[in-house]
Amino acid sequence: MAHILSSGRLHDPDLSGISITVTEVRVSPDLKAATAYVTPFGGGEAQKVVSALRRAAGFLQHELAGEIELRVLPKLSFAHDTRFDRALAIDRILADPRVARDLKPGTEPDEDDGT
After folding, report:
1. How far is CA 61 from CA 11, 34, 56, in A?
2. CA–CA dist 54, 59 (Å, integer)
3. SS3 of 87, please?
4. pLDDT digits over 91-108, tens only?
């Protein structure tokens, strides 16, 4: 899928100039459905990208059928992978001076001052 997305075969104005990272593909146990978790490289309008990929799902399935040898190709769906967003939020919290102070070795909260 990453190869198809990077090859330029998919023509959608909402995806023009956007690099997409496919972080994970989860396939159902019966192999009839697959969800590709994606995120725009460097951030960006994730919902716009996911919507464009959902519109192009049929085309992508057809392209994958020519590259993968499977008896039945799973029906594709797309979702935004929010793991990077959550990791950035955690990094911001950990960078807060109040939190960083508490993370230094040997600093224990003082029960008397309520911290």
Report:
1. 15, 10, 9
2. 10
3. helix
4. 787 777 877 777 777 656
